[in-house]
Specification:
The chain has 238 residues and is an all-alpha fold. Among the domains are: 77 residues, no CATH class; 58 residues. It contains 4 helices and no strands. Keywords: Coiled coil.
Length: 238
């Protein structure tokens, strides 16, 4: 394929299209297009100032070896223009995606730094809380040991009180038995007293009878004396 050498002043508009055409020329499915190494004259029917698209269109048609009125070259130009625009859109979208990705990467990096900072703060908070919980656990363990010792002392005291209560119950049982024995002795003494009182009453009654008998005998003897002491005894009798 013949190389095209252009002046430096014409590189700005020709190089992208020429690069595209060279890339297509390497494709075996694409018919190679021979580019003419001719300067790019200005068409007579196009008057300055020309727009950017008009300049590209005119130069492309001259490079393809046709005239502006050639319909096949017009169609080929529109095809190439669509390919170029699609390539530009693809490159632009890729560039935008790269910018978006870099922006997203920066945002993710910022979020990662924030998460690391938050994680460090949470670790500090958790360590502080862990130290507090360790202190509380030690305090609770000391309190538990003290409570166990206190419970053992209370248990010993309860065992002593239980033994004292058992001894008190034994003493109460002994006192109850003694009270029962005393009550039985008292009942026996009361019965004895009743019998003695009965005997005493009988003896006293007999004594009273004997005393009355003695009094009667004495009275009778006194009367006999009085009767014997008088001459007739009639005064005493009447």
């Amino acid at each position: 394929m013949q190389k095209l050498i252009l002046p430096r002043s014409q590189w700005g508009t020709s190089l992208p299209l020429l690069t595209l055409l060279r890339g297509k020329a390497r494709d075996p499915c694409f018919q190679p297009i021979m580019l003419r190494p001719l300067p790019l004259p200005r068409p007579a029917h196009i008057q300055p100032p020309l727009s950017w698209s008009q300049r590209i269109r005119g130069r492309a048609l001259w490079h393809l070896g046709g005239q502006p009125a050639d319909r096949n070259h017009e169609e080929l130009f529109f095809v190439l223009q669509g390919v170029v625009l699609q390539s530009c859109k693809t490159i632009l979208s890729s560039y935008k995606e790269a910018i978006r990705s870099s922006s997203r990467a920066g945002q993710l990096e910022h979020e990662l730094k924030a998460l690391k900072k938050e994680k460090a703060q949470e670790e500090g908070t958790l360590q502080h809380r862990l130290r507090n919980l360790s202190g509380e656990l030690n305090t609770l363990q000391e309190g538990y040991v003290a409570n166990v010792r206190r419970m053992e002392a209370v248990k010993v005291e309860l065992e002593g009180m239980q033994a004292e209560r058992d001894s008190t119950l034994l003493e109460r049982d002994a006192l109850g038995k003694e009270r029962e024995s005393r009550r039985a002795g008292r009942d026996e003494m009361l019965q004895t007293n009743d019998s003695l009182l009965g005997q005493l009453s009988e003896s006293q009654r007999q004594a009273w009878i004997m005393e009355a008998s003695l009094e009667g005998v004495r009275t009778t003897e006194g009367l006999g004396d009085l009767v014997r002491g008088s001459d007739t005894g009639c005064d005493l009798l009447f």
